[in-house]
Amino acid sequence: QNLLAEKVEQLMEWSSRRSVIRMNGDKFRRFVKAPPRNYSVIVMFTALQPQRQCSVCRQANEEYQVLANSWRYSSAFSNKLFFTIVDYDEGADVFQQLNMNSAPTFMHFPPKGKPKRPDTFDLQRIGFAAEQLAKWIADRTDVHIRVFRPPNYSGTIALALLVSLVGGLLYLRRNNLEFIYNKTGWAMAALCVVFAMTSGQMWNHIRGPPYAHKNPQNGQVSYIHGSSQAQFVAESHIILLLNAAITMGMVLLNEAATSKGDVGKRRIICLVGLGLVVFFFSFLLSIFRSKYHGYPY
C-alpha cells in the first residue's frame, strides 16, 4: 500500500507540472508495467526528434496534448488516469521490449493485467484526432473526457478576408457586374467543390488522418492507405488530381464532338481526351482495387 501511494503521489506531482508525463525506460517499467497499480495509463510511443523526420508524430503529439490538457483541467480530473509519452530516443529499450516497430502508437495499460488487443489504438483506421482518442479511452477506462481546444481564430480571419475581398471586387466592378452571370466561372467553382468532396476532404477534416506514413524500419513513405476503411491526406490529393484529369478528358471529348472546327484538330482533341480518360481512370481503378481487396474485377 505504501508503494502504491508513493507511485500515485509521484504521478500526481508530475501531472501538476505537465499534463503529459515524459518517461524513459526506468520510469516506464516502474510506474506503468510494475505492480501494484490502481490507475490506468495512456502511453504515446513516438519519435519527436528532428532527425527522425516523423511529421505524423508531431501532428499526433499536438492532438495528444490537447486531450491531456482537457483531462488535466477538467472538473473530473482524478488519480485514476494518467497520460504519458515515451520517445524512441529516450526509451529505445521500451520499444524493443514491446516489439514495437512503428510510431506513433497509443496504448492503454489497465490497472490490472496486461494490455489486450483493443488496448492498442487503431490509428491507421480512425486517425489521431483528440475526440477519437477520447472516445477510445472512454471505451477502455469508463473515463469520459470532454475535449476543449484552444481558441483558433484562423477560420474567422480567413472568412473575414474572403468577404472583404469579394466585397472589394464587387465595389470596384460595380458598374460592370456581368461576370457574375459567367457560366464558365460558376461551373469551375462547382467542379472545385465536387472534386474536394469526392476526394475525401470532409473525411480528412472529421478524422484528422496523417498526411502520409513513413515506415521507421526502411524509411519508405506510403501515400496510399492499404485499407478501405481509412486514407491519408496525400491520398485524397492524388484522387482529386485524378478526378480532375478524367473530367478534363471528358470535356475535350465533348468539345471534339460538338465543335464545328477543322476535322483534323477535332480528331487530335478527341484522341487527347480519350487518352486522358483511359489512362487516369485506369490509374484510379488500380488504386480502388488495391484498397478493396477481393473486389470482383
TrEMBL record:
The record's InterPro entries line, in alphabetical order, gives:
OligosaccharylTrfase_OST3/OST6 (IPR021149), Thioredoxin-like_sf (IPR036249)
Where in the cell does this protein reside? Endoplasmic reticulum membrane
The pathway that the record names for this protein is: Protein modification; protein glycosylation
Membrane topology (UniProt):
Multi-pass membrane protein
Q: Which GO terms describe its cellular component?
A: oligosaccharyltransferase complex
- Record Gene3D superfamilies: Glutaredoxin
Residue ranges of the TM segments: 153-172, 184-203, 238-256, 268-288
For the keyword Zinc, the answer is no
Keywords of this protein's UniProt record, alphabetized?
Disulfide bond, Endoplasmic reticulum, Magnesium, Membrane, Signal, Transmembrane, Transmembrane helix, Transport
* Predominant cellular place of this UniProt entry's protein: endoplasmic reticulum
Q: Tell me, which GO biological process terms does this entry list?
A: magnesium ion transport; protein N-linked glycosylation via asparagine
Q: Which family does it belong to?
A: Belongs to the OST3/OST6 family.
Q: What is this protein called?
A: TUSC3 protein
Instruction: Name its species.
Output: Serilophus lunatus
Identify the gene encoding this protein. Answer: Tusc3
